[in-house]
Amino acid sequence: MAIFKCKMCGGALEISENQFVATCEYCGTKQTLPKLDNEKKIALFSRANNLRIKSEFDKAAGIYESIIAEFRDEAEAYWGLVLCKYGIEYVDDGKGSRVPTCHRTLPLSVMDDDDFQQACENADITAKTVYRDEAKAIDKIQKKILNIALSEEPYDIFICYKETDDITGSRTEDSLIAQDIYTELLKDGYRVFFARDSLREVAGAEYEPYIYAALSSAKIMLAIGTKHDYYDAVWVKNEWSRFISMMSDDLSKVLIPCFKNMDAYDMPKEFKNMQALDMGEVTFFGSLTENIERILDKSKGKAIKETIVVNKDNIEVAPLLERGFMFLEDEEWDRADEFFEKVLNKDPKNARAYLGKLLADLEVSSFEKLSEFHTTFSDSNFYEKIMRFADSDLKERVKNSNNIIARRVEDARKKALYEDALEIMQNATTEDMFENAGYMFVEVKDYADAKEKSEECFLRAEDARKDEILFRAKDSMYGNDTINYLTAIELLKEIPGWKDSDEIILKCKKKIEEILETEEADRIKQEKQSEIIRKRYEEQQKLSLAKAKRTSLFATIGLGVTAFVLLLILLLNHLN
Questions:
Q1: Spelled out in words, what is the top-level CATH class assigned to the domain 157-299?
Q2: How confident is the model at residue 102 (pLDDT cuts 50, 70, 90)?
Q3: Helices and strands in the chain: count of H runs, count of E runs
Q4: For position 2, what pLDDT does the model report?
Q5: Which of 261, 268, 275 is nearest to 238 (CA)?
Q6: What are the b/e assignments for 14-43, b being 16+ CB within 10 Å?
Q7: Is the pLDDT of residue 303 over 50?
Q8: 365 in helix, strand or coil?
Q9: CA–CA separation, 93 and 73 (whole Å)
Q10: pLDDT value of position 296
Q11: What is the structure's pLDDT at 304?
Q12: Which of 175, 197, 176, 199 is nearest to 186 (CA)?
C-alpha cells in the first residue's frame, strides 16, 4: 500500500497502485489521486500538495508544472494547477466535512479552464466525475464572488502591505507607513483600497470578493515593504502576484514598489525593471504623487492619440536631420539633440527626429550600434513616439534592435540566476534552501539543465523536510516520560517508510511499554512498602499500648506500697 497525503486536510491516505479515487478517514472527503507509478512523481505531488495546503499557490503551481512537463497525461497535476489558479483552500464547514473556499478570482469560469479540461481528458470516468463535481462547487463560489465584486465602486489605488508580524503578533511598520500614505491619498481625492480600513466591516472568510474588485479596478498598486519576508508573505504575495498577472492583460495598470531600509536585491525578482520608490527619501511623497498623477491621467485617456504620419522627411528639415546625425557620430549628444529638437519644432511628427533624440539620450553614436546598448529602451518616451509616427520599416528595425537587446539581457539574466541557483543548491542543507533554488531553476527552466535541476531540488527539499521531522522525533526521545515518545511517534507518522522511521516507531512503542511496566512495578513495590510500613506502625502502636498498661500497673502498685509504709511508720510512732 502506498502512502499519499489528503489534499484537503493533509492526513495520510493508504491507497493501492491502481486506485484513482479515495475517501480520507480523517476528514471524510472523497478525492482524486494521481497515478502512483513513479516514486519521483509521488514525492513531487507530496511537495506540491503540502505547499498548496499552506496557501503557497504560486510555489505549488511551479511543481505541478514540473510534473506535467515530464508526465503529460497526469490528470491530477492539471487539477492541482486549477486549485492553485483559483486559490482553493478546503476548510472545515463545522459539520465535519471539508468544503472549498476561494482566495483567487478569475473572470473565466473554471468549467472553461484549459487545465480543468486537460484534467478531465486524462482522467478515468470515476475521477472525471469527482473533478466535475468539485469544479461545479468552485464555479458556484466564483459566481457569488463576481456578483459581489460587480456591485463595488472602482478604486484608483490598491495598497498592498503586511498587516501583522507573524512572530510578534504586533502591527508591522509597513502597516503604519501604508496608513500614512492612505491618509494623504484620500486628502488628494483618490479612492484607495487599504485593507485595514476598507475591510473593517467584512468577515475574514468573505474578503475575496472585495479584494478581487479592488485589484481589478485599481490602476495602481503600491507594494509597501520594509523586509523581504513581508513582501514574500503568503497573502501579500497573493495580492501583488495577481495584480502583476492582471497587468499583462491591462497595460494601463502599474505596480510601484515602495521600499524602506532594503537593498534592491531584497525585493521580489518580479519587481525587476519596475520604477521603485525609496520611502526613506525626503522626496518620496512628491515622487509618489507625481507618478500617480501621470499614470492616472494616461489611463483616463489624456495621452495624445496615435497618428499616422508621413514617412518622408521634407526638404526643410532634411539638412537639420543630417546635422543631428553627424553630431551623434562625433558623440556631441547635446548638440545633436538641439538639431533634432529644431526638426520637431517644424515637423512634430518626424519619426527620424525622435530616433535621433533616442540615440542622443542613450548616447549611442549611430543606429547600427543601437542593438549593442546594455538595456532595452522600450519604456522611453522617444521609442513610443517612433512607434506612433514611423513607417512600418523603421518601426520594425527599431523593434528588432530592442528585441536583440532584450534577448541578450534575458540570456544574461537566466545565466546569472541559474548560477546563483546552482550555488544555493550545492550549499543547501534545509528544506527552504532547496526549495528556493528549485523555484529559481523553474524561472529559467528552458536554460541548460534547469528543468532537471528544479525537479532535483524539490525532491531534495522533500527529503530535507523528512530529515528535519526525523531529527525532531529523535530529539524528543529522552527520559522516562511517555509524552516524549508519543510526540516522536506522531511526528514519525508524517514520514512513514522514511529511512528508519518505522523502526523508531517500534522502539518508541517498546520504550513506552517499558516505562509503563516500570511504573507499574514501582507502583506495586510502593504499595508493598506502604503495607509493610502500615503493619509496622500498627505493631508499634500495640507495643506502645501494652507498655503504657504495664507502666500504669506498676505505678498503682508503687502507690500502694508507699501508703503501707507510711501507715506502718505512723503505727510504730504511736506504740513508742
A1: alpha beta
A2: confident
A3: 20, 11
A4: 54
A5: 268
A6: ebeeebbebebeebebebbbbbbeeeebbb
A7: no
A8: coil
A9: 33
A10: 87
A11: 34
A12: 197
How many other C-beta atoms are found inside a 10 Å radius of the C-beta of residue 231?
A: 25
pLDDT band at 560 (very low <50, low <70, confident <90, very high): low
Spatial neighbors of 276 by CB under 8 A, at least 6 apart, are: 256, 257, 258, 259, 264, 267
Secondary structure (3-state) at 161: coil
Cα–Cα dist 35/22, whole Å: 12
H or E stretch covering 193: strand 192-194
Report H helices in 476-500: 482-492
Task: Output the pLDDT for position 190.
Answer: 94
Q: What is the mean pLDDT of residues 28-36?
A: 80
Residue 299 has pLDDT above 70, yes or no: no
Backbone torsion region of residue 227, taken as left when φ is above 0, otherwise alpha when ψ lies between -120 and 50, otherwise beta: beta
Long-range contacts of 177-184, Cβ-Cβ distance < 8 Å, separation of 24 or more: 177/224, 177/226, 177/258, 177/260, 177/279, 178/222, 178/224, 181/222, 181/224, 181/258, 181/288, 184/285
CA gyration radius, the chain: 40
User: What are 229's three cell numbers?
Assistant: 519576508
Q: In the CATH hierarchy, which fold is given to the domain comprising 318-366+375-390?
A: 1.25.40
Query: Which residues are bridge partners to 100 per DSSP?
Result: 90
| Cβ contact 127:115 at 8 Å | no
462 vs 432: CA distance, rounded Å: 10
Q: DSSP per residue over 205-256, as a string?
A: GGHHHHHHHHHHH-SEEEEEESSHHHHTSHHHHHHHHHHHHHHHH-TT-EEE
Q: Which residue from 479, 514, 4 is spatially nearest to 488, judged by alpha carbons?
A: 479
Sign of CA dihedral 46, 48, 54, 55: negative
The one-character DSSP state at 271 is G
Among left, alpha and beta (phi > 0; psi -120 to 50; other), residue 497 is left
- Strand-pairing partners, residue 22, are 31
Q: Is the pLDDT of residue 310 over 60?
A: no
Q: Can you give the pLDDT at residue 302?
A: 39
Where is 92: in which H helix or E strand? strand 88-92
The owner of cell 501621470 is 294
Instruction: Give every strand in the sheet of 192-194, ordered side by side.
Output: 192-194, 157-160, 220-225, 254-259, 277-278
**CA–CA distances in Å: residue 435 to residues 76, 84, 166, 466:** 22, 18, 21, 14
Type of residue at 277: L
- pLDDT tens figures, 258-296: 999 887 677 888 888 788 899 998 889 999 999 999 888
Distance (Å, rounded) from C-alpha 162 to C-alpha 227?
A: 10
Mean pLDDT over the full length of the chain: 86
CA-to-CA distance for 253 and 295, rounded, in angstroms? 8
What sections of 315-430 are H helices per DSSP? Answer: 318-329, 333-346, 351-362, 381-389, 392-427
Name the CA dihedral angle for 290, 291, 293, 294, rounded to a multiple of 10 degrees: 110
Domain spans of the chain, in order of start: 2-150, 157-299, 318-366+375-390, 411-475
Q: What per-residue confidence (pLDDT) applies to 308?
A: 32
